[in-house]
Design brief:
336 residues; 25% strand; Quinone Oxidoreductase, Chain A, domain 1; alpha/beta; Rossmann fold; binds NADP nicotinamide-adenine-dinucleotide phosphate; 2 domains; 6-stranded parallel β-sheet
Length: 336
């Protein structure tokens, strides 16, 4: 079977398409014939700087993939050959709180990922594809969607009428926007692009702010809430945006710290003075994934796919993410 490998430094151009033996599922494992992947910023960063992330070579990249079960190992009882499944980012985080050992089961690093024609997962490391979704839509869910769900619904207790500030229009933020629309929450979306903001409004954004034209976007967000401040911030920017996110939040508001798109330094004093609840979020568990999929199926929510690339052309998917021109998710389709 064919697999893309990170074999060393060298970035996207050094990704290698290789032949590997078809993997055999061991006890408690299942083999899945991949039909689609999606890529995340983490996958791109891993390809660009594997050494800095402690990657052991060779390593198959990507955490997100969906396909059909083609074999099950001894003792497997909840998954059968022919099931349509999507892999879980953490192969060993079934439920409860995260731990260091559960984090060590992340696909793409430190264990082999999903950019291969056949992938072996743990039985508890897959969930059924919601019946309303195709393989590509399902492949968008494991990292970006679950992170947004964990942040807003699980940790944030999102409810109708809440105000939510979303930074940019990448994978996590657009799923967060869709969960706001699903729940009846008011999403304020920021972007560098007016065209993307118009698209966000068509998906239900309550208000939009161009963060290039309005560098003090925190004040603009507060003004939209009558000076009160937003209930939640989905913080994907990191150090360069966190102070403004804290400024935009109401007293005792919730900031979900997710991303590291920007650098800088942070003065944390307003966290204390405003009694902000700051939650670090790292994707989510299989149990959260199942709950999210039930909500997606019940509301027929369709993930937003910006562009699809063929498996043979997978490096172009990473190059496309590097442009930051995308809106929502970028997927890779495997040959039928
Ligand atoms: N903790 C976790 O579990 C977890 C899970 C998933 C992702 N992440 C992290 O979260 C971040 C976002 O991931 P993603 O997959 O959504 O990335 P993505 O799809 O690549 O989104 C990137 C987008 O973020 C926006 N952006 C960039 N700089 C910005 C800034 N200074 N202010 C506001 N928006 C900015 C841009 O949107 P516009 O073009 O609209 O301006 C850009 O297109 C990354 O750092 C990623 O590693 C963490």
């Amino acid at each position: 079977m064919k697999a893309w490998e990170i074999q060393g430094e060298g970035g996207i151009d050094a990704l290698a398409l290789t032949d590997r033996p078809s993997p055999e599922p061991g006890p408690g494992q299942v083999r899945v014939r991949m039909r689609a992947n999606s890529i995340n910023r983490r996958d791109l960063n891993t390809v660009l700087a594997p050494g800095a992330r402690g990657l052991q070579f060779p390593r198959i990249p990507n955490s997100d993939g969906a396909g059909d079960v083609t074999a099950v190992g001894p003792g497997v009882s909840s998954v059968a050959v022919g099931d349509r499944v999507v892999g879980c980012f953490f192969q060993d985080w079934e439920a409860g709180e995260v731990s260091a050992s559960k984090m060590a089961s992340a696909l793409g690093n430190p264990i082999d990922g999903t950019l291969a024609e056949e992938v072996v997962f743990n039985e508890r490391g897959v969930v059924p594809i919601p019946e309303t979704l195709d393989y590509e839509q399902a492949a968008t869910l494991p990292c970006a969607a679950l992170t947004a769900w964990h942040a807003l619904v699980v940790k944030g207790g999102l409810k109708a009428g809440d105000t939510v500030l979303l930074l940019g229009t990448g994978g996590v933020s657009i799923f967060a926007l869709q969960f706001c629309a699903m729940t009846g929450a008011r999403a304020i979306v920021t972007s560098k692009s007016d065209a993307k903001l118009e698209r966000a409004r068509s998906l239900g954004a309550w208000a939009t702010i161009n963060y290039v034209d309005t560098p003090d976007w925190a004040t603009a967000a507060r003004e939209l809430t009558g000076g009160h401040g937003v209930d939640h911030v989905v913080e994907v920017g990191g150090a360069g945006t966190l102070e403004q996110s804290i400024q935009a939040a109401r007293h005792a508001g919730h900031v979900a710290l997710i991303g590291v798109l920007t650098g800088g330094t942070v003065n944390p004093v307003q966290l204390a003075l405003k009694s902000i609840r700051l939650n670090g979020i790292y994707v989510g568990s299989q149990a959260m994934f199942r709950d999210m999929n039930a909500a997606i199926a019940a509301t027929a929510m369709a993930p937003v796919i910006d562009r699809r690339f063929d498996f043979a052309d997978a490096p172009s998917a990473f190059r496309h993410m590097q442009t930051n021109d995308h809106f929502g998710k970028i997927t890779i389709t495997f040959p039928g």
